[in-house]
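call fold(seq) -> tokens
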Amino acid sequence: MPDTDPLRTTQLDFGFEAGDPSVAPSVAPSVAPSAAPKRKPRRAAPVAAVPAPAVATAQAGDAEALARQLETHPDYRVLRRLQPRLQFAPATGAVRRVLLLDTETTGLDASRDKIIELALLRVEVDETSGLPSGTVQVYDGLEDPGMSISREIEQLTGITNAMVRGQRIDEARVAELLDGVDLVIAHNAAFDRPFVEARLPAFAQLPWACSFADIDWKSEGQSSAKLENLALSKGWFYDAHRAEMDCHALLAVLGQPLPQSQQSGLARLLAAARQDAFQLQATAAPFDAKDALKARGYRWNAEQRVWQTLLADEAALQGEC
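ret:
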């Protein structure tokens, strides 16, 4: 399928709606003079009204100015809709080329389920600063999986059977983006990688990094490694569970300094990719060992049905064994 245009999003027009500041006083039914004693009419209490110009200003004012004013107050925190960025400053030195990837699939089992959406962002990373540089190249394509998409997946992703009918990933465009890539990055590569390599074998020839597992987010002060939570910690929200938007969110998060080390997430992953790593599996681990394994950084591999962890070097491997 032809390459799609880069995702364009618009800032929500969130203004504070000015409610009516006054409530009309109730009026008692009139009483004939002969049926009730004469009473001195009561004067209604004056009601303060917001001047019309002030209301108009609140409705039509600059939303970003309102947000900046609100976030200066210690009791408030402002979240902004994540705006995909397709252009960065030029690199000052050597660059590494990375490909950020995300998929949407018919289910969780790579041996049975299929890709229904593949999104790729190709970007150069300045080796000196660890920051994205130059132009971001984008691909986002749907594919007919040859099987019905469940209602659960439709509700999760917004991708329907009608949307994918007859669609196919543009393999030529994907090959262009893969050419010369130094590293493929996915958030939870253990999930995406089997799907992608089964559909497009060229991915099996490239080094991969997992931004979920290869960065110790807990030691960086993050309570959760979920991409949505990492974005929220930076003050962004976005429409998750569509592949391209997830890629833009991942690029935004990895392009920021990590809270403790102050190294960018991209730089951390590129450095880790240069080193050997070891995957250790706790085979035949009893069910009641799961909490201890999770505490030591093991994750459950649903496909192989085993707890596993990734260790940075041989010393760490020997220590864990």
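The first helix runs from residue 52 to 60.
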